[in-house]
Specification:
The protein is mainly beta. Helices cover about 10% and strands about 40% of the residues. The chain has two domains: about 230 residues, no CATH class; about 200 residues. It starts with a helix and ends with a strand.
Amino acid sequence: MWTKALANHVARWLRAGHWLLGLLGLLWACAACDPVGNITLDAPVAASASNAYYVDTLTVRVATVWHDSVLTSGGDNLLVGRYHDPRLGTITARSYFQVGLGGTYSPALDEVYDSLVLVLKPDGYRYGDTTQLQNLEVHRLRDALVATKNYYAFSQLNYDAALLNQGRSTRPLAARLSVRNLRLRLADALGRELLAAGLAGSLTTDAELTNRLAGLVLTPGAADDAALLRTQVSTEGGALNLYTHSPTDPATVITKAFTLAAGSKHFYQVTADRTGTLLAPLSTSLQALDVARTAQEAYIDGALGLQTKIEIPYLADLRSFGTRLTIVQATVSLEVVPGSATRYLAPPASLAAYLSTRANQQGAALGSSTATALAIPYQSGISNLTGLETSGYAVPVTDYCQAVVDRTLDNYGLLLATASASPERVVLGGPKRAENRLKLGLYFLTH
């Protein structure tokens, strides 16, 4: 969908001239010798000392790769909920977190217990069906988190099956914009336990609090099929609030706010039950599933670790057209499959591309000399096939193609991923779809 502008640019860049019919015939003969690669060249535009050619028939292989090592303890987010995605399966998110003391807790000896309330501050992020009621459940964590340990989307810790709250049906804030927080009242037994510990002088450090209360776990209701909600632990107002009062002034509320710990003291777990979906064969980390087995669709999802792998297996065969060869520009255009995106299943605002190893491991970022990957923006344009408005991503692969042709880089392909560990997903068309299919456009010069 971005080929025409590029073609005009190259045409203006080169000085017009006559076709070199002998060379063109040789190029076509070379192409005929490689039916597997299926390299077909458009007619060249010749300059005085150069010949420019356009190729859009190079074979491209596309697959969905599953990476299970998605780090979720390094950010600020908690995620909870369950949603059935018809393409990706039933996605379930749980969050594990400690609470901090927020200063020595020394209640007055005559303070009277009122209630214990977990206050969460959801942000604007939603994933799934925001019209459905859902339950947020709170459990007591058994195993303490280790501050120096990384936790991933596959990580899990033991917690009590019993609910600390009675469960609460709530709608995401997208449906009730006036609601700014969620208040979940917890078991009085836990609240009285914390008050008693404070009265005994045994809640003076975070370590003492953690020894008594390892943490809390947020889970969705067992039958929920709604949306995933996100909250941030550093958001002001989010806390575990213990409410008491003085018997001499019962109308005045005394609040002890146990903070929601930041850093590596929290993480979220995200799992997917792919039963009945085209992705059901994905069962092993780093496994690749070719688009031929997924209806010519490739998938990307940040939280689930789904990435799209792109390979151009016969790229080095361009050397048959001349050993002195310069890739002027090469772009892989990917279009979003119609109907796969909705308001709350929106494609990522940008993707990042990484070099792949033979075993589908993620390597260095494409197009950057630093650790920061080049952002590939989501954009709208005109479809190459239908001439209709469409949307997708244009991946610049010029440097990659040149390095492969120069034999300075192994041709193991590229991995496209989201920039975050949130469940942002997109469905991309494969190279053999009738419409909205992947397209590689490549301009090169022979000298």
